[in-house]
Design brief:
Blueprint: H1 8-44
Length: 45
C-alpha cells in the first residue's frame, strides 16, 4: 500500500496523530529533564 493511494482524510489523521505523539514525546522528555535538574538542585541545597 502506497502513501499516495490513501485518502486525504487518512493522510491528515496520520499526520495529526504523528504530531500528537511527537508532542507527547517532547513533553515526557522535558518533564524528565526538569525532574532531574530539580533533584540535583535540591541535593546541592
Amino acid at each position: 500500500m502506497k502513501f499516495n493511494d490513501l485518502r486525504v482524510a487518512h493522510k491528515m489523521w496520520s499526520v495529526i496523530l504523528g504530531l500528537l505523539l511527537l508532542m507527547l514525546a517532547a513533553a515526557v522528555s522535558t518533564q524528565l529533564y526538569s525532574r532531574s535538574v530539580t533533584d540535583k538542585t535540591e541535593a546541592l541545597v
